Task: structure prediction
Amino acid sequence: VQLVESGGGLVQPGGSLRLSCAASGIAFGIYVMGWYRQAPGKHRELVARITGGGSTNYADAVKGRFTISRDNAKNTVYLQMNGLKPEDTAVYYCNTDLYWGQGTQVTVSS
Result:
């Protein structure tokens, strides 16, 4: 199983980024996919999760700003992040079952 994230970077407060996670080696369509993040000195935390059927749930800190989606034909899960804040700065990880991607850095700073 391989999960490869992309789309991180440096953005100003209020800006947007879209993260992608391409999965291989799994029957993608039946797995719950999640995005987690870990800021320096903090524990890794759930950001958003989506079932194979498209049901979603979000951390309170990102509700209304972030949107998780998936394209089962492309074995890819996305995280659209709008209204970014400095406190969103973290390494963002894609997850399914016991598997993790390598992470992608998101930095929100002016």
Q: What stands out?
A: The CA atoms of residues 48 and 58 lie 4 Å apart. The mean pLDDT is 96.
